[in-house]
Amino acid sequence: MFENLGGGEMLLIFLVILILFGPKKIPELATSLGKGLRKFREAKDGLEDQLKTAMKEAYGGITNCKI
User: Fold this and answer.
1) Which residue has better confidence, 5 or 6?
2) Which residues are within 8 A (CB) of 10 and not within 5 positions of it... i.e. 6 or more apart?
3) Which end of the chain offers a freer environment for a tag, N or C, measured as fewer CB atoms within 10 Å?
């Protein structure tokens, strides 16, 4: 994800975030970002499960057909 970013660029990004949001707000931002990523991952996993179930049901219907 960060293959093209060197140490200098990462430091610059961190300093900009620190200046924009301040040291007190950064932990709150990190917490809400973590919660958002967790919800996104849960939704993605649920969608994958539904898709796999639907594919199994469809495949099972096709293989049980007699021609």
Assistant:
1) 6
2) 2
3) C
